[in-house]
Structure prediction request, 361 residues.
Amino acid sequence: MKEFRAKEFFNKIPKKGRIAIYCALALIVCLVIIVAAKKIVSSAAKTDMTVYTVKKEVYENVIEIAGTVSAAKSQTLQSLNDGTVVGVYKKEGDSVKKGDLIVQLDDTEQLYNLANLDYEISVARQNQTSGKIKLMETQRNSLLRKVEDRKIVATFDGIIADLDVDPGDYLEAKDSIGTLVDTSYLTADVEVAETDVSKLKEGQKVEFTFPAYDKPVEGYLVSYPAIGEVTSRGATVVNAKVRIDNVPEGILPNFSFTGKIQITDSENKLVVERYAIGHEQGKAFVEKIERNGKLTKIEVEVEPYTLDYVNIISGLEGGERLKAQSSASKSGRMRTSLKGKTQKNKNNSGSGGAPMGMPPM
Prediction:
């Protein structure tokens, strides 16, 4: 009944009025279609104009290490016999030469015994008792050794790292009073994972970084054994020896460091997301966005670098802005994991391995 009344009402409207209503409705429909089309075109344009920038990057093929440095040589300064200290001739921080006297113990008794024996030897020579003289000379060598044992001397050129003794102190045999170190070079034993041992070569460059020093320090790999060890963590490692010959002032034994064993020389790379690369007739190309917004098609040569990146061998110089040729979300390789963590482009891994290969594009 309502439908019939509406029709009756509509028929009562003059013909010109009905035409105007039809035109208004048609105009509204056209406006809706135009607005929807603009949104679709705008969305498509945004997708098509995703921009990637060509970046310069230094690729390092290294093995990361850490540890503490040790002196080239170390001597524990200690007494070989009981006795009273009668002289201290060096102090902490002094440089010494091999054979320098550092501490003297009382040797009065030893010198007396030696002088007494020398007198007996002279008497025996006068009496021409050659057999006894030979025995006395052997005894004399023993007394000379006892005199020397009353001295604490440097066994190599070095620096007295610490010394805690004063004249009048009484020392017992094997008492330690200090340490002598040779810091002409420093060494360290570092753990290398079993998967990286095949990359090691004697003489490889090593870069050390010390928290106590503001510049990198250069060294080298000295050696590594032909057998591995299992750590308390259950990992199999090889203990490689590294060395620093030119030791900067301020770097001392037992200082901690982090470092890198350089497997190959560093390389400069031009990298960009692989979605910026297009292919046509078997050749790779990019579309460079000029300053005026125009696109320039450039043929390039690329190689796989990481999961989402390629290395540009030729065709570009770095810094160029490129139009996307494919979408990351439609490529089968989402750039963000399900947990929302972005995959990182790691060139400097702890194991020093080459970068991961990229799946075919």
In short: The longest strand covers residues 176-193.
